[in-house]
Amino acid sequence: MVDVRYDIAFKLYPYEKVAAIGAAPLRHPVVIIGGGPVGMAAALDLGRKGTPVLVLDDHEGVGQGSRAICFAKRTLEICDRLGAGQAMVDKGVVWNVGKVFHGDQKVFEFNLQPEDGHKAPAFINLQQSYFEKYLVDAVRKVQSEGCPIEIRGRNAVTGITVHDDIVSVDIDTPDGPYQLGADWLIACDGARSPTRDMLGLRFDGRVFEDNFLIADVKMTADFPTERWFWFEPPFKDSGASALLHKQPDDIWRIDFQLGWDIDRAKELKPENIRARVDAMLGEGADYALEWTSIYTFQCRRMENFRHGRVLFAGDSAHLVSPFGARGANSGVQDADNLAWKLDLVVKGLAPESLLDSYSEERVHGADENILNSTRATDFLTPKSAISKVFRNAVLELAQKHAFARPLVNSGRLSVPCVYDGLSLNGPDELNGPEHSRVGASCADAPMADGFLLEQLGGDFTVLALNTAPPDVADVDGIVVRTIRLDTRRDDPTGALATRYLGDEPCGIYLIRPDQHVVARWAVADAADIKAAMRTATGRGQ
Questions:
Q1: Which residues 6+ apart lie within 8 Å of 209 measured at CB?
Q2: CATH number for the segment(s) 8-93+124-202+301-368
Q3: Which terminus of the chain, N or C, has less C-beta within 10 A?
């Protein structure tokens, strides 16, 4: 029997004995393994759409330690749609500015969101424990309104058998084992995914020969709320690079690059960690060590994220280095991509083949993240003497010359993936801004009341700008909402016209439930909308 003990930050779903123990297996439309950020986001999205979902987690809540801390604008926009984003922003440390140093010299600084007119900031720093708590708080709220989501803590999955029409799941609890059936199973059970191992699936990629020490330090300090990164930092015994981030509750996250051939047990001794932190903060600094860990960079992914009725999301499907904040952020985007597709399939409104596009699109996103993470890691840890000479020359040039700054790579920070050229895309027949092209996620803009993304919500939507929209209420039983906006009346700052029309006088966008652009036109009729809808839902033309 499972008997889980661990340091817990929030006990969010205490164990309760389930009636299924000793009974005939029940069948569930969707079962999610793993109650972390990805699993809970998927459950919340599906449940809000009316699809019943059961979440199984081998713990009862969130463990200690910051783990993921940097949550990007697109992730916050997704969480806002799910009812959790504002609590995250209110608690988190908002930041837009980062600074890069080489030794004791500042190389340059950057602003990730220099323009106004977005509800969400570029990034917040927030401990993963809080991030998960606010998602579960949102689940509890919609549960009280009748949303069909169930969470079972201390229910550990011990076996999986995949059949053509069902997945059989074996579960262990403190009161004994039981079994259930799932029409669809989503594995969100992390980098060491037991689900992946049970199914004998490969997880290929690269392990980088380096180790990084994380120290969560509690202290009161007057450092600005910015991302500070050092190449060859000037502090004694601080390694080849260092990173400093502020989090809520006076917690500061410090990363030290240690190298490959280390004694992990020695490095994790409190006195040795304190020696490094003292060198960074100065002798006599008043702080307490809250949590420490050592991690190794890995960039890996599964070949496909769909295996019949089992779908993989987050770290169970792909793994990247933490520099660039691409792990949890890309995982939440996996959930955002998958939920609306699975919802339509469960309801019989789209063919099962639509789920192949989940793998297609998110493999595309994972490859982009892995490429960026690999480049960042190679820049952080030059593999030869000449590579280091080149890296340091770039850093020296970047202090004085703007052209060299894009070559500096301390971790390209997470941005939403654009699904360029993939199978669900419709026509792009508007000479509009590049960043609002087909396949891109929608840019936010302030309205006379609120923001654009709040109005888009989580349905298929026709957005008509300065023109009459086609009359389409549904396509093949799938509801299509229409929003008609006049930029002369509804665009108080001009951001909407700038971000969606550019120099064009009018335009029509078809937008998916995950707020990615399906198609756009200067002029469109009902037939155009219906054809693009059928492409976007896997029914073709």
A1: 260, 381
A2: 3.50.50.60
A3: C
